[in-house]
Structures
1.
Amino acid sequence: MAQMPMTESMYYLLLALLHPGHGYRLMQEIREVSDGRVQMGPGTLYGLLGRMLEDGLIEVKEQVGTRKVYAITDRGKQALQEEYERLCRMTQDIQPFLGEGGRLL
Amino acid sequence: MRAIRIISTEIYEPRGTEAYLEEMDRRGYHLDAAGKFLFYFDRTEPQDMRYRVEYWKGELPDDLVTLYQDCGWEYVAEVQRNIHIFRAPADTDVPELHTDHEIEAQRYQFEKRRMVGLGIWAVLYSLLVCLYLWLAGIYTLFTPGYAWIQCFFITMLILLAVYLVFEAVRAWKHWKNLRTGTPEARGDSRLYRWGMGLSCVCTVLFVIVVGTWIRGIVWTTMDHTANFVPFTQVSEQMDAQNLPYFTLDDLGVPGSQAWEQRSGVYPHEPLTRTQYSWWAESADRETRLSMEYYDIRVPLVGSALLRYFRQDNMQPVETAAFDTLYRYSEGNYVHMTARLGRTVVRMGYTGNNPDKAESLFYDTFGR
């Protein structure tokens, strides 16, 4: 079963995979969707892809030369959805302790 | 132009290797290829490169190499097994290979396995050395002619055990650093390379010495035909060196045929060993006489040798003829071991005249 809760890298990788793509494109995509905040190295990416394939969160859609094109599976989407809901709950849980402008009381 | 360097054990410390290769590039040595033991460099203009060492069990997958290449990492070579080297120019924005510490765990696992493996080897090997020293004991040191080689051999064994322990400790430290994320204190590369060169020389020496030793064992084995000396010749040699001895003739074995089984005079440092054994057979009985005579030129060795020869069933005998005498007899068998000054003698006799053999032993070798 997939690791819960997800790491930041896993979260953004699944997010990027909503548009199928090969490794290098995914790296660029991650940087774009996180607005340059998350930068993933190719080694980390490759390790993650392997693990997620094993967990069935993603699949290899096609192979172009030595480049594999990955896509998210239904299970992956579900995991991402659950993670999103978990994050939402977390942000809600802190609300009572927040004052004006979102600062902790 | 090519330059070749020996790969040091530093290869297991990725950051050390990376720093070394980067330094080499700054000095104008561009890594071209690598084997199990050697780096091959091309001479080029000095340049700034970034090197990264990757562990990967088995062959690197094509898509991984492609992905790294897409990002700007050039695959250079596989070093030894499972260690792969990538490089990229230093002043570009090529992303780091690993950005997530969780993935780094693979690296820790690799180091952990290595550490445990080395540790097990170190323990096993140390045990083996102890066992060897215990079994071989003092006798190995007194095997004529090979005493110095034995000393060298044992020293090397001990050194190797120490080295293994040292390596295991280093691997453990490295693993701990990786796990806790402590930056690694870089060792002096030059020191390691010198150490590596030195151990290569030692290894060659070791192989030569062990080879000689094994060859020596084979060629000096008593039963080897090349060492088979007719007894008449042994008698001549013993007479020439004025060594005392007696034979089956002196014991009066009538009308039987006698053969020597093996015999020889072996003059070596630190002792001369004379050995022979006779075997005679007549219709209803057989007679055996075997003798070992050691003429020792180093103090204390005699007592040690005697202690080694003494068997559990032998009893000490008080006598004026020898400094020390151990004796065992049973029926028609008598076994005696004695030391007089720096001379050690052993005799075993089976026959119908053990009393005569015993008195001859006293007369021939005693005071």
2.
Amino acid sequence: MVAVLGLGPVGMGIIQVCLRSGHPTLVYEVTPNLLAAAPDLIAAALQQEVDAGRLTGAQRDTALGRLVVAGELNKVAGADLIIEAVADDLQVKSALLIKLHWICRQDAIFATTTSVFSVSELAALSGRPSNFLGLHFCAPGRLTSLVEVVPGLATDPAAFERAWQICRELGQEPVRTEDLPGNVVNRHLVPFLNDAVRLLEAGVAEPEDIDRAVRAGLGHARGPLELLDAIGLDHHLRLADALYAATQDPRMACPPLLRRMVAAGRLGRSTGRGFHTYDVLRVEAS
Amino acid sequence: MADHLEFRFRGHSRSFPVGVMGVPEEIPGPVLVLAGTEAWQFLAEIDDLRAWAAVLVELHTECLADHIAEPEAGGPDHVLGFSRFRMGDHLPTTLVELVRLRGTSPEAIQLAQVTFQSMGLEVVVCRDAPGRILDRLLRPHLNQSLDSLDRGLAEPAAIDHCLRVVFGTEEGPIERLRSSGLHHHARISRSLFEATGDPALALPREAAGAHRRHLLGCAPG
């Protein structure tokens, strides 16, 4: 059984992936109200997949039948793989991992979804470094099925292989990357998106022209500012701040314009306004 | 003068490497396109630049301000730069970056847009800045991918795969560099580094090596 800890966007996406692929999935969330709402939230997320034509009603019901909501953390004791998807805060993560170490079986594998903190550092804090690794689901249940599998310095190759295999069983596409801040995806994506905002800040071109240039010239499916609007500017800001703190790379630093937009509530598609303007009702429907 | 489009070439044109096809018969004003590596030399030779409603000069890695003054400083307000984006040895894309100065007239910008669009090209307008839009975004990104290889972050195929998926492109950055000629990237990135001093444009080991080999006349591979 897979246990997923955390009901934020990443945790929710991973839960959907697990349930859809036929895995009994145990879910835990530290916030009591969110934990109580978990069955409804997950049912609503799966219903969205039905509405989008990616699941049938029967598949949704079967998937929901695999869901087990753990009322307390002790209930995850029997899980084979525990995926922590809590906030990207080192203290929050380390406190949870220490508790889990005392609760879970010795052969259970712990995985962190962070792409910011060192897997080796978290592994050391977890008390079971040989059975610890990173599983960075890049956009779980949505844009891609890519999972960056990141061994720490002490990760046992057998644990790595087992986690790799589980990713495949979940219908995901595992890719090995080493333990550096951002892994492959965010190490390249975040500065690229920041650079696009800096072009706009410097008045080099309008948002439409920046996006059109990248689509037509570089063959990207979406322009960088469209992509930021889809990701959510608030999410990008948190990620960029964390990666800048970890790397001190100036390209990781969030551009002031984006920071101001977040402060003004222009978060992208979710609020109807980011670098572009959206019809919120249509966005919700899609 | 009739409203027509005239091309003049001097040196190799990266935007129109095999000449011009699909020239429209009519456009809303007389437009002169100066293409090729030495195209800017025409500017000093043309007696009556004002006979043209818009003069479009092909740019490479340089800025338009290298050839004409800002209109507010007495330069012409109907001369624009342009560059059709292409990756190294690849064929040019349909994307034209149209470069304006601060005081460029809106009428000349619109005429230039219509001219290129009538040739089946897609036009974006940008201010005169080193790297314009695409090279300013792409070159640091490609350098970062080479740096990631040197740091052992992942295998080249893994880096390419991840970034193909994330950006929805046919090629990842390493594949793109290999297929288009690493030495071309090195030349552009080095030129932009000299113009901006931005460390993200400094050449990583492999690109610097390709640049040196190219200068020495060695095989690029």
